[in-house]
């Protein structure tokens, strides 16, 4: 998707904005290829897949060495994997003064020491390290926090719904359907991982909360994020997805009791990350009608930022926090941002 | 406020982010002064006011000549006035390859030809021209539209409440008070200009709509923006603020009739800018409960962006769209952004 967007806009960017994007290397999970004069972003994917004589076996160390050897001015590295191995190479890449752009959460939610190494390398060498799309896809969340912080504001609290899946499930949990049926709906509509527990365990949302907390200057580790389990142990331990759903159905009455108790008080359940006072916690909250979280629809994400300057009225950003097209667009924006800094 | 924010963060920016901000020239509406080694942002305002031997009479041409003569690397010009004269000098400043940063709407809502000249100068020379705070103060609206557009997305529709005053009045128009009383409240709480008609005529909101439309690539002039009058002619023609309020009270019944008709259909009135299909229009709309505009509180602004990529779920940005502190913070962010591009 990113390659298609680059292909479709390379000319307009060069002509209208004097920004020249040149794809000089590419890799998928098996092969990699290079051409300092430029690869065609239209065709590179299928060449990697179908024309082994044009490429070589992929190897992240060799990939980095190749970029360094090419020694092109204004090179940038873009990682669109979810790989730990690639994330582990960012320090070497930044050390070579090559910007890193990524939607991959691994490095950003890695142990604090590695995170700090990357941030320090980026800052000390003035090399862009851009990862807007690690949280809420292309919604301008990270850049906003960074702008506020750089300009001397202090973020005091972030409240956020960071999981599209959990947003969808709780936005639609209105008593018309049992909880387990909503999870089945979410799965059927492609909102969940193959095993919905990979969303319902809120680990991915917690990783995003960690990234936001760190962006605000908090020295947190993933292990210190407090995650309130949505599911009881019986569901988590179920040996298969079918067994999980069978267990979940047994919990429908308990979920409904919690929902209707909230509804009786004019409230609704939302699974919210709260980052405040140096800590981050994700939990099921009862929100009243005027809460910004009650305005969520579909699988929308929302981030509510309270700071010294946004003290009485918060800054709110809302919208789709996932999806190939918006995410690719956000990565592309970060590439352009890096290009502008380098020109 | 901006000077205080710079003063308070100069050290941290230099130490933690290697961004050196040096104030080398300053002017108020009467005097201007320079020091290539740096002016103290803490004291410069009072020196301009109280120590005429340190400064000279202000003159925008002389100010620009002085910056050019100093020929400092990475100079930037920041206009925090609302002056047409200063805005008219941006072309000369950009032509000298000096970035312009401003919350002043004048140049951005000037005749299209001047707007285009400035945008072309900025692009052709790679000189930042940054004006995030001309619309909704520091809310990340302009930068988001710019990011989307640069990365090949196409904004299809913007719906927005761009006036804090009109937001406050209509958010609180719930039948408990007559319309004229709400306008009096808004004035008493400092939400309006001395003459509230300067807000109620929606000209300022229309100027912001024009800036957004142009950012989306529409070649619009201010005269082509359609503004639905909120007030009848009798109110607009009233010779004084007191006379205006007397006239407005006569209209209370009509406003209430319109409100209660909407309320009977489960709707509420909001004054909304809609930018779509190459045109921009501001009008009083009846919004239903699920509308994002019904979630507005206080004097909040909101911008709802629908694009090719944000097609089914829009991107929503909401929060305070005015205020000295957030606006200064946004201008400061733009200064830092320019600095990063220049380094």
Please supply descriptive tags for the structure shown above.
homodimer; 343 residues; alpha/beta; six-stranded mixed sheet; 15 helices; 12 strands; 17% strand
Query: Could you give a short account of the major beta sheet of chain A?
Result: 6 strands, mixed
The most extensive interface, with participating residues per chain, is:
A-B, 52 and 52 residues
Oligomer: homodimer
Strand arrangement, major sheet of chain A: 8-10-9-7-11-12
Shape of chain A: globular
Overall mean confidence score, pLDDT of chain A: 95
What's the Cα radius of gyration of chain A? 22 Å
Beginning-to-end CA distance, first to last residue of chain A:
25 Å
- The fraction of residues assigned to DSSP E strands of chain A is 15-25%
* SSE run of chain A: HEEHEHEHHEHEHEHHHHEHHHEEEEH
**What structural class do you assign from the helix and strand content of chain A?**
alpha/beta
Q: Helical residue percent of chain A?
A: 40-55%
Say how many strands of chain A there are: 12
Number of helices of chain A: 15
Low-pLDDT stretches of chain A: none
Provide a descriptive summary of the structure in words.
Two copies of one chain form a homodimer. Chain A has 15 helices and twelve strands. Chain A has 343 residues and is α/β, with parallel strands linked by helices. Chain A has helices at 2-17, 44-50, 60-70, 84-87, 90-95, 112-125, 142-150, 164-171, 179-188, 197-200, 203-215, 233-237, 241-250, 252-264, 324-342, and strands spanning 25-27, 31-34, 56-57, 77-78, 100-101, 129-130, 155-161, 226-227, 267-276, 279-288, 300-307, 315-320. In chain A, strand 5, helix 6 (112-125) and strand 6 (129-130) form a beta-alpha-beta unit. Helices cover 43% and strands 17% of the residues of chain A. In chain A, strands 8-10-9-7-11-12 form a six-stranded mixed sheet. The mean pLDDT of chain A is 95. Chain A starts with a helix and ends with a helix. Strand 12 of chain A pairs antiparallel with strand 12 (315-320) of chain B, so a sheet runs across the interface.
